[in-house]
Design goal:
The protein is α+β, with helices and mostly antiparallel strands. The protein contains 24 helices and 55 strands. The protein has six domains: 6-176 and 283-510, no CATH class; 521-632, no CATH class; 642-786, Immunoglobulin-like (Sandwich), CATH 2.60.40; 792-905 and 941-975, Immunoglobulins (Immunoglobulin-like); 979-1104, Immunoglobulin-like; 1111-1237, Immunoglobulin-like (Sandwich), CATH 2.60.40.10. Belongs to the NIBP family.
Length: 1240
């Protein structure tokens, strides 16, 4: 069969040359190469003016040669035998090898080749000339073959003159045919020879009388018919057209119906050839003239413009002829595909040839051709892909090429002659195939004219009868071939859906079972390629990425049926891998459209196929079937299971590296918020496990087992870790699937690209790519892998204990009482063979603004010379580590007050209440008032966490000088049990204006008695769950002026205000902490410690009262110094002498006016109001004063109360003109409390 419908048209101008292997040695690959090289010399130019082309076709067998007199293009004009000597070929099988060994002593190898060649010539007795190509033999060893016929070459590579010899053979054939063409003597002879067909007398009706005029017209018409054939074969279609017209006139008069049918067919075919040449549909390409014999010929190709605008370029391939029933001629049949256009070819190129054994009863080797078209009784030749070339832009009128003739051929006349030929052929049963070829040539003409509607009608009217059950002349195999031809016709005009329909119909005829015969695997091997090529017609694309979502499937039910048929054919043909691939594709793409029963059956079939396969099927590999004619691309089985949303996770916190840029190199600063993220966004380290998080979902209704699930990467050496999953059946509750992590270890540095995953599912090896969110572009995730780095871990003398569920680092815990101090050690260990050139230690812990911290390192080392270039900010200690070295550090834990610790816990863990209620005294600070003073008292809590953070740099640098930093941590959970803590505080005047009493309420939270030691040797006992008041005398701090905090609030920004306030607080904390030392001990528990006073030292409101004020006032009541807050009891109207001593710490002199104010406290919550009217002052109510740093001044007031109650008398200083007003913190004065009653 030809490669397209155009071959039916070109057949009529092509000379047939049979080429076969001969001799005892066979070499199919070498024979294929010889056939291919010969096929390239298919067209030669034999004349310039007019331009004439001579076409030849190299075939391996022929059929319908009994009609060679009727149609000369069916005749075999020459034969070529190809023999291989010992060493160049191998015996075909064991029997041949044994026969050869037994006859070596009797007949030489050269004689066997010579005898086989002579037998080949005798099989085709009517040939013009022949050639024998001998590979590996010497010329003198083959004397039995004529000298001009043998072509001996040492090897196929040395056969450089093969093409030239083939062209010489073609030239010789042309000369003979040309001599027959120019011989028109029959026109003048009285007795015209009458060409007849073999056994013509059997079907001829009546007896011809040679003397009659009708017989003479019959002979003349037949001779003219043969002369027209010679004209067409020698490249003169114009002359052939005239000769066919003359033959038609004579044969019509003689009523010679069979030859008249052939003449009609020849005339119409010639018109089609001329029309196609002028339209550019037949492109002969480059070719050689007879005189030039040094360059290769290219093969003429034919362009068929389809309805879609694309052009299909097909060539006049060498093909197998349709079997005639002769068993000897049907033993070896192959098809060849020839190169197209202007491609350059090499003599050693491999040509696809398929050889198989068949006989006329059991098999038709032509079945399974891609285009499905058979002409001249030939077998199919499958063309893998049509070559697309430029189509002609317009259609030329049919009459242009015959403008010099009187009667111009029209479309109607051409089709009329085709129909006349079909009608005449239909009168002869034995010419049924010739009739069908005429139908196909008429179809070819309608394709050229783009008359697709008429083509459809013509095809339906004239081919339907061949497929009818009443047609007994054609068996089911011939009917199958007719369907294939129809499929190829629809393919060329772009009707792929109908092409698929006729291809499937041909399969039905091919699989028709006659009596006494059972379908074999070989039958399904024939039909499988045909069914496979119907997928395109139904819109099934095997090569595209099979996305589950947003895929337009087309006619789903029809596609499922077609795929299932292909799977069945592949399975029964023994193509087990192809059957598995088709079944997996069906499940992958059409699973949602399958019912449960069919799904169950398909999975059972898949399981049976996998069990019957010895090797694990690789879904990602391409499958080649039928000697490369069918290529099944790899499949990504992404539906079982569905794995989506790949996310690359960073390494564990103790392994995650960061790139530290080299600060020594000067560079231009360009601000961009993406620079640092790009460098450190996703970094893995060699020999450190990496993780990729994916979502896995089972869409089946049963349990799904996934084995050997691992990542697929590119770029660097990577060792994936395989996982095994057992996924539960799909249910409505778990629609989102499960999240898992896939592990792997990179083994070298560089750019790692994570492209997909592989697994073993249903016993198949499956490799899939990750796709982007839209499912189109493959999602290739890039991860930068750093070289192998040092690894450091921490060891501690504290006991280990897990703190968090997902904490991958070691952790420790400790239990202390508030105020206790414990010493421990921590060891920094380098367990790698890479040195650490910098290792810095810092501690993250709850922020305590006052008092000792929770954890403190004992020894702080100086940075060594090797690490001066590294950043050491916030590092408490730094050092280097040798490979497998370690460093031990000492630290101690102090039990801070658990009721007033810093920000450590979450909101749910914060303890918002104190251990015991605060004492209801006036010394309780007001939170509202202290908020304006930026008080730093934090919230309270009992369970605290801290971390040792060690960051280290491996002694590895990049070409840019950058280094790699890692961090390791040791979390410590510290449980602090309240022992003796501070519950409240108050500041009272001291024994002088330059000292203060800090009165602290200390609470014993234990169940045992506690002993307190304060002010060096003073002791006090506290009962369990009781509170006692401890007075501690502290001198005022002269390093901070009275208005310093006010000046701090005047700074330009809030941050500057906080920084200045913190600086002043630290100065006061260092001063006060020297005196605020309270030790406790609990003998029953054998415990001792220090009362934590961090809450006091962090209170700005307390520390501000310990600043030496600008003006201090000292009161004397009735000559006795007032040093406490105890009330002075007086009666109504009783006069009291109050002396006020004014002391200044200012360097300059200060002038002011002193007066007294009286206030009465209503309640603790409502505050007090001014009651100066209830106090009677005798003498001066306002006394001016002048004080300086060296001198102090006194003022005396006599006062009495006229109302009963509790009153407080406060001093009021009014600055003199020219003096600045005093702030509240610039003046310290303890108000005098009076209790007025009616009794004295």
């Amino acid at each position: 069969m030809k490669s397209s419908t155009s071959d039916f048209l070109t057949d009529v101008q092509t000379v047939n040359i049979v080429i076969k292997q001969i001799g005892p040695n066979k070499s199919l690959p070498a024979f294929k190469r010889i056939v291919e090289r010969c096929s390239r010399q298919r067209v030669i130019q034999v004349s310039d003016n007019p331009r004439r082309l001579f076409h030849c076709s190299f075939i391996q067998s022929s059929s319908y040669t009994e009609f060679s007199e009727l149609q000369q293009h069916r005749r075999v004009f020459a034969v070529i035998g190809v023999g291989f000597t010992n060493g160049q070929g191998e015996p075909a099988d064991k029997s041949t090898r044994a026969s050869r060994e037994s006859t070596d002593s009797e007949v030489s190898e050269s004689e066997q080749i010579s005898n086989a060649y002579n037998k080949l010539k005798s099989d085709y007795s009517n040939i013009i000339c022949s050639r024998c190509i001998i590979i590996g033999g010497k010329d003198e060893e083959f004397d039995l073959i004529e000298r001009h016929e043998r072509l001996c070459f040492p090897s196929l590579e040395d056969a450089t003159q093969l093409e030239s010899a083939v062209r010489e053979l073609m030239r010789a054939i042309y000369i003979v045919i040309e001599m027959k063409r120019v011989d028109v003597s029959f026109e003048k002879k009285q007795e015209i020879p009458c060409p007849i067909l073999p056994d013509e007398s059997r079907w001829q009706v009546g007896v011809d009388t040679k003397s009659t005029k009708s017989y003479r017209k019959k002979c003349l018409g037949r001779c003219r018919k043969q002369h027209a054939d010679y004209c067409l074969l020698t490249g003169l279609p114009q002359l052939a057209l005239e000769a066919y017209e003359g033959a038609i006139e004579s044969l019509k008069s003689a009523q010679d119906h069979l030859w008249l049918a052939a003449a009609y067919d020849g005339w119409a075919s010639t018109v089609c050839i001329l029309h196609a040449e002028q339209m550019g549909e037949i492109n002969c390409g480059a070719f050689h003239r007879v005189a030039s014999m040094h360059a290769m010929l290219t093969i003429p190709s034919i362009e068929i413009n389809t309805q879609t605008g694309d052009s299909l370029s097909v060539s006049n391939d060498s093909v197998l002829r349709y079997p005639s029933g002769n068993k000897e001629e049907m033993k070896l049949q192959s098809d060849f595909s020839s190169p197209q256009g202007h491609k350059r070819h090499h003599s050693d190129e491999h040509v696809r040839v398929t050889s198989s054994m068949s006989n006329g009863i059991e098999r038709n080797e032509s079945f399974g051709n891609e285009s499905g078209i058979v002409s001249n009784g030939s077998s199919p030749s499958i063309r893998e892909e049509p070559t697309k070339v430029k189509a002609s832009k317009g259609l030329n009128p049919l009459s242009n090429f015959l403008s010099d003739r009187r009667e111009k051929p029209t479309k109607e006349r051409v089709m009329e002659n085709f129909k006349n030929s079909i009608d005449e052929f239909s009168k002869f049963t034995m010419a049924g195939w010739l009739e069908y070829e005429t139908v196909m040539r008429g179809i070819m003409y309608l394709i050229l004219e783009r008359e697709y509607i008429k083509l459809e009608q013509f095809h339906r009217d004239y081919t339907g009868k061949y497929l009818d059950d009443s047609n007994t002349f054609m068996d089911h195999r011939m009917k199958s071939q007719i369907c294939l031809n129809s499929a190829a016709m629809y393919r060329e005009i772009g009707f792929l859906r109908k092409q698929a329909f006729y291809a499937r119909l041909s399969v039905l005829f091919e699989l028709h079972v006659t009596e006494g015969r059972v379908r074999q695997a070989s039958d399904y091997k024939i039909v499988y390629p045909v069914l496979f090529k119907t997928l395109e017609g139904y819109g099934v694309e095997l090569g595209e990425p099979h996305d589950i979502k947003n895929k337009k499937l087309g006619p789903v039910k029809l596609q499922i049926k077609s795929l299932h048929e292909i799977f069945t054919a592949a399975n029964r043909a023994g193509h087990r891998d192809a059957a598995i691939r088709h079944l997996c594709f069906l499940l992958q793409v059409y699973y949602p459209h399958l019912d449960s029963s069919m799904t169950t059956r398909l999975f059972e079939d898949l399981d049976n196929l996998v069990k019957a396969t010895n090797l694990v099927h690789q879904l990602n590999q391409t499958i080649v079937v039928d000697d490369g004619k069918i290529i099944i691309p790899g499949l990504q089985l992404t539906r079982f299971p569905i794995i989506q949303s790949p996310t690359v996770l960073a390494l564990q916190s103790n392994l995650a590296p960061t790139i530290v840029p080299n600060k020594c190199q000067a560079s231009i600063f360009i601000y961009t918020p993406f620079a640092k993220k790009a460098d450190n966004a996703l970094l893995w380290v060699t020999d450190c496990p990496g993780e990729v998080e994916v979502t896995v979902k089972n869409c089946r209704g049963s349990e799904l087992v996934v084995k050997d699930l691992c990542l697929i990467v590119e770029g660097v050496n990577f060792e994936p870790v395989q996982a095994r999953l057992i996924l539960p059946p799909e249910d409505e509750e778990n629609q989102s699937g499960s999240t898992i992590r896939l592990l792997g270890v990179p083994r070298e540095s560089g750019d790692l690209f994570i492209t997909g995953y592989s697994c073993n599912i249903f016993g198949l090896h499956n490799e899939c790519r990750f796709f982007s969110s839209n499912g189109q572009k493959p999602n290739k995730i890039r991860v930068k892998v750093l070289p192998k780095l040092a690894r450091v871990y921490l060891e501690c003398s504290l006991p280990r204990a897990p703190i968090e569920e997902d904490n991958d680092e070691p952790s420790a815990e400790a239990v202390v009482y508030s105020g206790q101090n414990f010493d421990h050690t921590i060891t920094v260990v380098n367990n790698s063979d890479i040195p650490v050139r910098y290792c810095g230690v810092k501690i993250w812990q709850p922020i305590v603004q006052g008092g000792p911290p929770l954890i403190c390192l004992d020894d702080l080392e100086t940075h060594s010379q090797e690490i001066e270039g590294c950043e050491t900010t916030d590092d408490l200690s730094s050092f280097t580590l040798e490979p497998n070295g370690s460093k031990e550090l000492q630290f101690h834990i102090f039990g801070i007050d658990p009721t007033s610790t810093a920000d450590d816990l979450s909101d749910e863990e914060k303890v918002l209440e104190s251990v015991v209620p605060l004492a209801t005294t006036h010394a309780i600070p007001n939170p509202d008032s202290e908020s304006n003073d930026m008080d730093l008292i934090p919230f309270t809590g009992r369970l605290l966490t801290a971390e040792f953070i060690v960051r280290y740099h491996s002694d590895i640098t990049t070409e840019d000088g950058n280094s790699f930093e890692r961090k390791c941590k040791l979390p410590i959970a510290i449980s602090i049990i309240p022992a003796v803590t501070v519950s409240a505080w108050h500041v009272l005047p001291g024994d002088s204006p330059f000292s203060r009493y800090i009165v602290v309420d200390v609470t014993n939270s234990t169940e045992h008695d506690a002993e307190l030691v304060y002010s060096n040797s003073r002791r006090m006992y506290v009962l369990p769950k009781e509170t006692c008041r401890v007075p501690i005398l502290s001198p005022c701090c002269s390093d901070v002026t009275g208005g310093a905090f006010h000046q701090a609030k005047q700074r330009g920004s809030h941050m500057m205000q906080k920084m200045e306030t913190e600086r002043l607080r630290l100065i006061l904390e260092n001063h006060v902490s020297k005196h605020l030392d309270i030790r406790w001990s609990i003998p029953a528990l054998n415990l001792d410690g220090q009362v934590p006073v961090g809450s006091l030292l962090s209170s700005v409101s307390l520390l501000k009262q310990l600043v030496l004020p600008a003006i201090s006032l000292d009161f004397f009541v009735n000559g006795k110094q007032y040093v406490s807050e105890d009330d002075v009891t007086v009666g109504i109207g009783q006069f009291v002498t109050v002396e006020v001593s004014i002391i200044s710490s200012l360097a300059a002199e200060y002038n002011g006016i002193l007066s007294l104010e009286c206030e009465q406290e209503i309640s603790h919550l409502l505050g007090s109001n001014d009651t100066s009217s209830f106090m009677l002052v005798t003498g001066a109510k306002k006394i001016p004063f002048t004080v300086d740093k060296e001198n102090k001044q006194s003022a005396t007031f006599n006062l009495a109360f006229i109302v009963e109650g509790s009153f407080r008398v406060r001093p009021q200083i009014t600055p003199a003109p020219g003096q600045n007003a005093l702030l509240a913190e610039d003046m310290f004065a303890t108000p005098v409390a009076f209790s007025v009653s009616t009794k004295f």
